[in-house]
């Protein structure tokens, strides 16, 4: 990497591991940075650090000279706990407590040549430490942080008050402010951590950065969590069928095709079985829909068998269910292990209520699957943000929205709301509907749809939050891969963090009990 400072001098910065031959440069920097704390380590201490854990000793050189460095070690943190002292845990600088089988990367020191301050070299070293922590599968980085700015406020406030003001940016501390900006959080205040540190009045902050990709147990070779989930959607053509077998042939065709692409999920639209409505009296739409409900159990059973035989989880759009003199619109999840779950559409549209007498369901839950937690909301449901928020609170990562819309403005309501739910809840959202027409089928004659998969809007995702979308009003499929690790990273380190930053002290969403 080549940079220039304001004087026109050319820099050639390179990140690498420290070597014993770098000691003179390191000593020069530490003597300048720590004149009141004893200056640099001895050559023996420096050699011990490299010999015990070479991977953890990192530096940045400029034109061959070390200008910044970071010293780290791995520890079994339970051996020391939160009340440890600096010399105790670092073995007086010799890293005698380095444990290759430990669970935490301990930050011993970071130092930058005063001439290079303002070039954000410390941030590069912190990023390198984070990369090391992830590569070693350690659960966290922990460090004791000095508070040199506290000296000016020690007479008027306690350390905890000072830390709170620094967090709120009411005060600036040259070390603590930098650490907080690098995603560390303060676990507690340590007393007598470094007794000779008079600037901090011997107080220190115990800081931690959590590795969100840490796996406490080795991932099994078979049945482990998938980081990449493949979703297929069917933009379903409404066409007349002569009988039940014709409909099932069309359904199985798409299940077979999506399974051939190794999809984990296939999503069908709302009321995808509507072609069978043509068999019933169109002068009474409510009675026709109750007649269609007679097929729901048989279709669900058949799709459950397909889920098992084709090894794919099927979201069976939605179908009418007539139970105890009440008509519902119900989506089914047919898992590839043979189990079945359902979601009763919560919000019946005015049209559904008027023409068919559909009632809303009264339950909502996220569903466990072999590749993570999902949610299902049917069409109009997604226009109510509270429902999706409740699913997100249950750990939902992918929301599936089967819909039926007849006009573009109706479709855009569903689409815009689905995109908002992806951003608000830091999840993926897949939507699909039906296209074509069903002449002489009352209240469901025409369709408008465009299948799509949406993501949150941040740097790791498409800039417009659209993972993929189909051609409008054409029978087709959409197949997309969803990176679940990106969701985890977004929730911990995103530019904005909607879930984390919700003001639960002011408002929250609750499901009312009976």
UniProtKB/TrEMBL annotation:
The organism's place on the tree of life at top rank: Bacteria
Pfam families registered for this protein in UniProt: Acetyltransf_1, CN_hydrolase
InterPro entries hit by this protein: Acyl_CoA_acyltransferase, C-N_Hydrolase, C-N_Hydrolase_sf, GNAT_dom, UPF0012_CS
PROSITE patterns documented for this protein: CN_HYDROLASE, GNAT, UPF0012
This protein's UniProt keywords: Hydrolase
CDD domains: NAT_SF, nitrilase_Rim1_like
Boundaries of every N-acetyltransferase domain copy: 13-172
GO MF annotations in UniProt: hydrolase activity
Keyword Transmembrane helix in record: no
SUPFAM superfamilies: Acyl-CoA N-acyltransferases (Nat), Carbon-nitrogen hydrolase
Family: Belongs to the carbon-nitrogen hydrolase superfamily. NIT1/NIT2 family.
Protein name as it appears in the record: Bifunctional GNAT family N-acetyltransferase/carbon-nitrogen hydrolase family protein
Annotated source species: Spiribacter pallidus
Record lineage: Bacteria, Pseudomonadati, Pseudomonadota, Gammaproteobacteria, Chromatiales
